[in-house]
Amino acid sequence: MKEKWKKAIKDVFFQTNQKIIEDIQENEKEFIKIQSNNSYFLKHLIDKEIQNKKKQIEPISEEFEKQKQILILKQKEKIFKSETKQRRKLINLQKFKKIIENSISRKYPWSSNLISIFDFKFEKQNFILNFSEIEDEMRRQKLKFYSKIKIKNQNQNQRKNLKRLNQKLKEK
Fold first, then answer.
1. Are the C-beta atoms of residues 120 and 100 closer than 8 Å to each other?
2. Exposed site from 53, 67, 157, 172, fewest CB < 10 Å?
3. Pick the residue with more confidence: 147 or 133?
4. Model pTM greater than 0.90?
5. Taking a C-beta distance cutoff of 8 angstroms, is the pair 128, 89 a contact?
């Protein structure tokens, strides 16, 4: 009897184990089905979410493009303003240069080469009035001018003296 009971208990235990194993296998199959359904469902949800995000992003990208265009226009405007400022500075410098040229040429007849210094500085667009440099150049030009006049006068005086001497010689 004991053996029958043992055998019956083993059979019941084996059957319950077998049933549990079958249930587990069925549950695994159902879990796999559910999981695959869930993965499809998740994929569908993810696709839907991506589409929603794209729809949200599109207006943002359009707005971004508008902002980008506005920034580009602002940059162009800044560049244009800076160019106009530079043009104005150059025009003002040119006016200043003309004023200086006129005043110098009226006051100092020897200043013709001095104007070329201004031109040279304007070409480099680093026009800085260095008065000591200008004064030095003015002194040099003045010396040249007066030395030319002096030589010219000396030559005229020599000619006059030669004419006088020739006349005196002719008279004798």
1. no
2. 172
3. 147
4. no
5. no
